[in-house]
Amino acid sequence: MSSRPKKQFTVSTNDPAHHFADPFQPQTPLGSRTPERTSSPLGARRPRVTPWLRWAVEPALDTPLAPLLEPLVPAIGPYLPNGHLPNPFGSVFLISHRVPTSDPDDPRYAKGWCDLLFLAYNIVFFSCFRQLITVNLCRRIAKYFGLKKEAKLDRFGEQGYAIVYFLLSGAWGFRIMAQLPTYWYRTEYFWIDYPHWDMKPELKCYYLMQMAYWCQQLIVLVLGLEKPRKDFNELVAHHIVTLWLVGWSYMMNLTLIGNAIYMSMDIPDMFLAFSKLLNYIQWEEAKVVSFVVFVCIWTYFRHYLNLVILWSVWTQFDLIPEHAQQWIPAEGSYLAPWMKYQVFVPIALLQALNLFWYYLILRIVVRAIVTSKTEDDRSDDEGDDEDEANKPTEKKRDTSKLKEKAMPPTPKSKT
């Protein structure tokens, strides 16, 4: 066997920068500075990249994608942020019809046909948003609090979505009203300086999104996507009257009074939904307190303020300037004298529906005082109750059949 020469290592103790030499020379002592690499090792080069993927590494204009994109530049360029043409899809998710003569620091918007695109887009948006809140968020919260029945989970999701929406819309409506001369329900400004055809951008966006929400809610009711309550017909009538009010007020340039009505509806609806959630999770003391607060809020907003608006329509309608008290769509004037009744009637119908629900609310208050129970007369889970009520009868039928099978046949009498 040939013996390989052993490599001898020598330890250098004279090198102040290292403990060892030769193979161990790269090691550095504690506290010393690590030497910086001055150049890459020889042979370490970037791998070759195919010309069609070179844009991912070096996105330069001389890549093969440039010939493909070059014909599109003249077509797309004008629609880019720095271009001179508007975005063709801007009308779908942005408000349109800016008044060209309005101050750039205080822009104003008018109504127009492109508002229908914005409306349709937000109907779809609210459908997705509703699904996100009811299914992805509220169902998990409901299960956390021990709710298991499908009907209870659905109702919890519906009321949770109502809380989220009416909280946002109520706060947004309050913010907008604070910027208007109608704050807080100074009703004479509903009519002074009419027509109010040029809207603040926030007011127009708020108004159209409210319209989209109620359109989507009507679709949910008509298609039966929610389990119907006992007051199903009243709810359908409420949504139709609401859309009547919203559509006409927007077309007639009465958005200031529309904002006031929205406010009077959204805020109490939020407290109603919150009281229902507490009822579902059986927080008895909190439920009673929230219900008392809700009754006070409902009485003030849905009845007192609505009656204030009705009184304004009936007594302050003549504050409209004389030149605007005629039907001239080209000038934005629609409030001829006979329009007073057209404005008054739908608000009065809405108040009649509110009075019907107020009657149901007062029944709950009386029952709570007499029996200490605060239950909704509309029976949110009536379907579940029916199922539970049918179970004992089914069991009785089954047991009767078992008895019939178990009983021996009666012998025939011999004649």
From TrEMBL:
What PROSITE patterns does this protein's entry cite?
TLC (PS50922)
The answer to whether the entry has keyword Cell membrane is no
**GO biological processes:** ceramide biosynthetic process
Which UniProt keyword terms apply here? Endoplasmic reticulum, Glycoprotein, Membrane, Transferase, Transmembrane, Transmembrane helix
Name the Pfam families on file: TRAM_LAG1_CLN8 (PF03798)
| GO MF assignments | sphingosine N-acyltransferase activity
Residue ranges for the region (Disordered) are 1-45, 373-415
Kindly state one GO CC term assigned in the UniProt record: endoplasmic reticulum membrane
Q: Which residue windows does the record flag with biased composition (Polar residues)?
A: 25-41
Biased segments, Acidic residues type: 377-388
Q: How does it sit in the membrane?
A: Multi-pass membrane protein
Q: Provide the protein's localization.
A: Endoplasmic reticulum membrane
Compositionally biased spans, kind Basic and acidic residues: 389-406
Which parts of the chain span the membrane according to its record? 116-142, 162-185, 206-225, 245-265, 286-305, 343-362
* All copies of domain TLC, residue ranges: 151-370
Q: Which family does it belong to?
A: Belongs to the sphingosine N-acyltransferase family.
- The name this protein carries in UniProt is TLC domain-containing protein
From which source organism is this entry? Mycena rosella (Pink bonnet)
